[in-house]
Amino acid sequence: xxxxxxxxxxxxxxxxxxxxxKTGNTLSHHDASGETAFEHGKEGAHNRIDGKDERSxxxxxxDAKRIExxxxxxxxxxxxxxxxxxxxxxxNEPSRGAKIDEQIExxxxEELRRKGxx
Length: 118
Fold this sequence. Notes:
The structure is a single chain. The chain has helices at residues 3-14, 57-80, 85-89, 96-115. With 118 residues, it is mainly α. The longest helix is centred in the middle third of the chain and has 24 residues, at 57-80. It is elongated and about 55 Å long.
C-alpha cells in the first residue's frame, strides 16, 4: 500500500461517525459556538426526568442550566408585554380593565423605585 493510499484510508476513518450539518465537525468535539455533541441529539432522544437515561452528570447539569436560561428568557419576554399591547396590536382599543391593570403596574413600579428596591 502506498503512502497516498494509506493517507486516504486514514482520512476516511477520521470523519467516521455523526457529523454536525452546520459545522461539518464530528459531534464528539465542541464546536465554535460552545455547544456540545449532546445538544445535537434528536428531539425527544433524552427525557430530562428519566432516571435510566445514561447521560453524564455534566450533561445533566448543562441541560438544567440551558433550560433555566430558556425559562428566564421566556418569562422576561412575557413580562415585557403590557396588558394593553395585545388589543393595540390587533387594532382595537384596550379594555377598561387592561388600562387599569397597566396603570396599577406603573404605580407599583414607581413605588418600588421610590423605596429603592428596583
